[in-house]
Specification:
2 domains, VOC_core, four-stranded mixed sheet, 2,3-Dihydroxybiphenyl 1,2-Dioxygenase, domain 1, Lactoylglutathione lyase, 143 residues, alpha/beta, 2 helices
């Protein structure tokens, strides 16, 4: 079967559902520099965030009737340990200041697992947002 021939495809947004979208928004603003943008009105609360030039994160109030508990559902283990994330579900951001970024995240008290790929240059850091969603940051040494 041939693949669909979509044209002009680009990533529009990633959404995260949370019981505390204000807390989650503050995390992404402080850690990654997202900015709040105008959000549409729904029958539930939403916060739209933008990371320049064109990546959007939609934070959506968790449906209180849902039966699923909140995460860390992106981990390969039931324990919220970031070293379990490299093969799990996560969003990855690239940064040009990897070492200082990792240090800043650690200074916020966020548990982080980082490693260097066999090429000796590419670095990865794994951690969770306040709701247990897996995050990765990739970069190179700042030498």
């Amino acid at each position: 079967m041939a693949a669909a021939a979509a044209k002009g495809v680009s990533l529009n947004h990633v959404s995260r559902e949370s019981s505390d979208i204000q807390r989650l928004a503050q995390f992404y603003i402080e850690v990654f520099g997202f900015q709040r943008v105008e959000s549409p009105r729904f029958e539930f609360d939403v916060i739209w965030l933008k990371l320049e030039p064109s990546f959007y994160l939609h934070l959506i109030e968790r449906d209180p009737t849902t039966k699923l508990p909140e995460g860390p559902w992106s981990s390969t283990s039931a324990v919220a340990d970031p070293k379990n994330l490299p093969r799990g579900h996560h969003i990855c951001f690239s940064v040009s200041n990897f070492d200082s970024f990792v240090q800043a995240v650690k200074e916020k008290g966020i548990q982080i697992h980082h490693r260097t790929q066999p090429d000796g240059k590419t670095k990865q850091a794994f951690f969770f947002d306040p709701d247990g969603n897996g995050l990765e940051v990739a970069g190179r040494s700042e030498e």
